[in-house]
Structure formats: structure tokens, C-alpha cells
Amino acid sequence: MIVPGSVNPLLLATGGYEVPYSLRFRAANSAYMNRTPASAGNRKTATISIWFKRGNISSAMDPLGVASGNTEAIRFNAGNTLMIRFGNLDSTTNAVFRDPSGWGHLVVARDTTQATSTNRLLAWWNGVALTFSSYSVPAQNADTDLFNNVVHNLGASSGPGNIYDGYMAEVNFIDGQALTPSSFGQTDSATGVWVPKKYSGTYGTNGFYLKFADASAATATAIGKDSSGNANNFTPSGISVTSGTTYDQMTDTPTNNYCVLNPVDKNANLALSNANLTAIPSSTADYWLGRATMAFPATGKWYWELTLNNTPYLYQAGIYSGNRPNSGATSATGNEYQVAWGTAYTYIQFQSNNAAFAAWGTNTNPTNGDVLMFAVDADNSTMWVGRNGTWYNTSGTANPATNTDPRFSSIPSGMFPGVNLPNPASGGVTMNFGQRAFSYTPPSGFKALNTQNLPTPSIKKGSLYMDATLRTGTSATASVSSLGFQPDLVWIKSRSAATDHGLYDAVRGVQKQLESNTTTGETTETTGLTAFNSNGYTVGSLAQLNTNTATYVDWAWKEGVTPGFDIVTYVGNGTNRTISHNLGAVPHFIIVKNRTTSPRAWTVYHRNANASPASGALYLNLTDAFAADSTNWNNTLPTSSVFSVGTADRVNQNTDNLVAYLWSEIEGFSKIGSYTGNGSTDGPFVWCGFRPRYVLIKSTGVENWSVQDSARNPYNVVDARLKPNSLDAEGVGSAQNVDFLSNGFKLRNTDTEKNGSGTTYIFAAFAENPFKYARAR
After folding, report:
1. Beta-carbon neighbour count of residue 19 at 10 Å?
2. Which runs of E-coded beta strand occur in 185-342?
3. What are the φ/ψ torsions at residue 624 (nearest 5 degrees)?
4. pLDDT at 312 over 70
5. How far apart, in Å, do the first and last CA atoms of the chain sit?
6. In the predicted model, what is the mean pLDDT of residues 447-461?
7. Contact 721, 706 (CB under 8 A)
8. Cβ atoms of residues 673 and 443 within 8 Å
9. How many Å apart are CA 127 and CA 112, to the nearest integer?
10. What is the pTM of this model?
């Protein structure tokens, strides 16, 4: 049994501190660990540092509970805010934590010796200070129960109760010191991401360090061993280190994040447990789909397993597209390549790309305890399926890497592993993506789905090519010097006032302004944006961009092939024609503006705006639905070297000057796509392959355009939006709720602007960090 990867899949590809193990806490098995100190330590001052990857995000759970009555606790509330109980007093964060696809780092410093009450409890997530919606701390110099000689539960309340479901790694508790996150982590210069570092300080009398490295036994001196040197070991309960589906020592860690099933990308009738590795359907009749947290890269060979926890009536599993509906045995609208088995069939059945199920050769129907094997060769668009060490192909146990008889071929890229389970199906299935040892040796060259095995993205740090900056106006010339690049496009909007947008680019030149919400042509604003600098730009005193005390957000892009962004100016000729661009790839998103004549609308091409996207257009300054009009793009799709314009004055008026902004899609940095709304606060999850910095959304029907970013909302929920088609000030509220996640975004509202049931929405998103490196918010 092996975990596949590189020569040593546990080594960090870029060097640095390695975290080799985590411990899985299974709420379904009431798993937790406990210790009662023999005597009290420092009861006034302490620091807690834990890396988390959450499993269950639908109920309250306590990663820490101390003393009878839970006088000290850390709790993820049912609403997914974080509650820190300190001296039996509760403080609750503004931030919401419901990203189960990545790891996040919590540091809590408690110090009752502080004279200022707001210094007695400090907390950080991924090195960034947390704010609180409610804050309550003990009196100065009060003694609390952390490090007192009372029960300390890790993974549960002091009851125990509110059992935590998920993973923990690098658990450091420091007795007698109030430390900052820099003692336990640091920002990686190449990616800008918060990463672990080895704590090198002292622990105090009752401090401890749990690294879960010894899986020889589920005892206090093995999996619960304290590695601080204090021998403050924890006794495990409900933790297993016996090989199989219940094995709880994992290689899923902050330095190597593994694929799991995704609780924000599944049907509500499919229950996930055991830290998102087990799926069990409800008793409601139908098939319930759940996808995993990782899409297959366009390259590479990938392997995973599925264990049956009972003899099923009829199960399905395989790979599914992101737009495949999350209910129903089959789908006519989304790609699926799946197998089916159970008492309704004599043999395992195979379904390729929504075709009818069919048996293939002679095979035995899987039953309780069987292990199904899946192997995807993305380089050759093929997939094999096997059972208990034997592959379903004419060569039996032959290595799929060299076998010419795959069960599935011509599979598209960007598919997700998943399961599609019906009622009745008690017990469900348990997935293994390599975070524990596989039951069977993977084919040669096939790897586990984890972030260390993902391809290295061309852009490791999104802020080197696109960024969002917050600014307060001064009414005097001011420079923004915080960017990691010299921008070629800067788009400015007041957050606090109803004023027009202002767009400036380096191709047209400084002082040349366009406004996305108006049909006005280009104007010269001598006090507008006056310089593009090596690390930012300079704005003058123009009230639209720089009113004293007004607040602003500035969105900036760097032009080039690497970020997939080009600015093209041209002179119209009134006849159908092509315009050259320099992307070196097909643009998926184009915005054109007539600079000379007004009124002229901002004309938008988006590859998902319609089944024939070049047959019409959307308009950036309008709420209008996609409208058929071949005079915009001459009914001709763009290519890797040109885009086409028709005879419409807004895109090609004779002798007028025009500008086009073009974006192609860069894996790990930009995503230009679409999704279908469901009208629920449990809205669609949209895979991007990165943690977003900026998301632009528009219904293909009649609705406002919307822009949200992580500068204005540095933690979830993201609820501040501006409208490119309107001069309105920033709107904030639950109608705008979106979660930015480590691998995409999740709609959390019912508003028709973003999530009307059955409505198609287009979007353009740009990365803060690619998923290979991203942290959970």
C-alpha cells in the first residue's frame, strides 16, 4: 500500500518547513483527545496555534473545550463564525469560516494581565487579525481555566460534546506567553501565502506540541504524544490507526492539501461525514451527486479509490463536469463518465458521456467491502475502472498506463471525481484520494490528487498581475505605490458616493478617461490619473477620483501574454473586418468602447453569453439581456490572433477611435465562465482553480453587472458590491452574499442579480492565489 506522488510526495516542492501529518477527527465516531494537567500552569497568559481543515460545516463543533462547563473553548458556530470562550465569556468573529477545500491557521493569544481590555484576547487567521461582532473578556489579572488542572479536550467540548469533524495539524499550546502568528508561520515571498514554520520557543509547564507523527498505536504515548519535551501527552478516544477506511493519521496537511468530497458542491440530500471522505444519501428517492474539491488538471495521471460500506441497491461513481446537475441518475446537460453497480444489475455497468449504461465483458457485481479503483490519464483523455486489484479491461491486471483498452476515452478536461448515490443506500461509500495508504498499488506514473502533485502555475502570485486597492480621497495629488507591478489598466470607483466610474489605460495614455456606466466618449481629465508608475499610479485632484475623505476601490491589471490581457486601439472603417491582438490565445472576454462619438454603448463579448456568443452582445453600461445582433462581432468567433467586428458604430464607426480590452483564460489566474443559479442561499459552487481576488458577474437576462473583491471584504462573507453599469455607491447586504474560497466562489444569496433559479450567469474572475497554494478563508 503506497501513497503515490513524486519520489517523496511529502517533500515541499519549493523547500521550507514540512508538515508531514495531520489527525482526522471523525464526529461520526465521537473522536477527540483529552488531558488533565497534574497541577496548574499560568492561568493568565497563553497562546494557541492550530492548523485546521474543516469537515462538517453544517453544525456547531468545538475544536477545544476546557473544564466542566466548557469555561474555555474554541467553537465553529452553526453559522460558521468562530467563537472564542475566555474565562467563560464569549467573543464571536465577524468572519465566516466555511471553506472545506483548504487549510487555515488560527492563532489565539490570551493575556489577562493587559490593562487595555481589547488586548486581552487577540486572534489571527492565516496571519491576519480577526475582528469581532461581539467581544467580552475577563477582568484584568483574572485567572482562567486554560492550563488549570482540569480536563482539556481537543476535538470536543468539555462534556465531551459538539464533536469536531475535520483535520488538525501542528497543534501548539504555549503556557505563559502571549505570542503573535510570526512565531508559527510566515508569508512565502514567491506566492504571498501564509505557510507554517517550526515553533522554536519554549512551551511552559502545561504547554504541548502535537504533531501526530507516531501511528504505532491509538494511545497517549503514540498518536497523542506531546513533542514539546514536556510529556504532556493526550489520550485519544474514537481515533483509529488501524489500516482501512477508519485510519485517522493523514498526510493531508497545510503543506500538502489533498482532495476530499466537497460539502459546498453537492446535493443537500447527500450527507458527508468522516471529514468529507464518506458519503451517505438521505432516504429521499432520487440520485444525489457530490463532487470533489479538485478538478483534474489538463495534464498528468491520477488515481483514487472508493470503498463500499454496504451491499448497495444501486450506486454510481466516476467523474462529472462542474455543470452537471446535482440530482438524477443521468444527465443530458452535463458530461458524466460513471459506473453503476448494485442489486439491480448482474454486472457493473458503464456510462460514457451521458449515453446509456451497458455492461462490458464478464465482470462481477461489487459488494460490501469491495474497493473500486479509478485511474484518469489526462494526457490521453482516458479513464480506467477496476475492482479489488483487477482492472476492467481485456488485459485484466495490466497497467493502465500502457494498456490500449481503457473503458472510457475522449474524456474532457476539468472533470471532478464524485459519487451519485440513491435511496436506499445506508452506509454509503468512503473515498481515498491518497491521504491514507491506498489498498492497491496505483498504476505506474499515476499520482494522488493533492496540491503538491498539481502542475506549477505560470502565475504563483496573482497580485503581480492584477490587484484591488482601497484608498481614501485627499483632494490633493496622491500616489498608490503598493502594487507589485506597473499597471496598464486602472479602473476607479468611489465606494462612498454616487459618482461615475473612471477607466484609464497606458495605451490611450494618462489623463484619458472613460466611464463604464455612461455612453460618453473619451475625455481628457488633467487632474485625473496622471501617471503609471513602476509600483502603482498617481491620481490628481479630480473629485470623481479623489474627493477628500471619500472612499475608493481601484482595480488594476498588467498587460501581457502571461496574464492573458491585451489592450488594442484601432480606427473604425465601418465594414466587416478583423483586428489583430497579441494574446497568443483565444480571447474569452472582450470589451470595446467607441472613444470618439457618444452616445455609444460599451459592447461585450463573453464566450458563455450565448450558445452562439458572436451572434450578439451584452452591454457593460446597461442591464439589458444578451441581444442578437450580428453587426457587433460579424457573427465570427475570435481566434488566437484576431477578433472580428461588424458594421455597428459602437464597435467600428468609420474614422472613429476605439479601444478593446481582451482577456484570455490563464489556468490558476483567471477564469471566464458561466454558472446556473438555483435561487437558494445554498447556491452554486463555481470552480475557478484559485482563490479569487476579483469577480465580475452578469445575468444573461436583464440585470445589473456586479463586481466584488477581497480587498473590500478580506474575509467571508463577501457582501460589498459595485455596479459597472451604475454610478451608485457601494451596496452592502445579504442580497450580495458570496463566499470566496480557496478553489472558487460559492453563491450564498437568492437575489436575481446573481442567483435566480435557472438563470445563466457569466463571470470573469481573477486570482489572489492559485489553488495549489491557496488557504481557506
Report:
1. 21
2. 185-187, 194-196, 208-210, 235-237, 249-250, 261-266, 270-273, 278-281, 287-292, 301-308, 315-320, 336-341
3. -55, 150
4. yes
5. 34
6. 97
7. yes
8. no
9. 22
10. 0.95
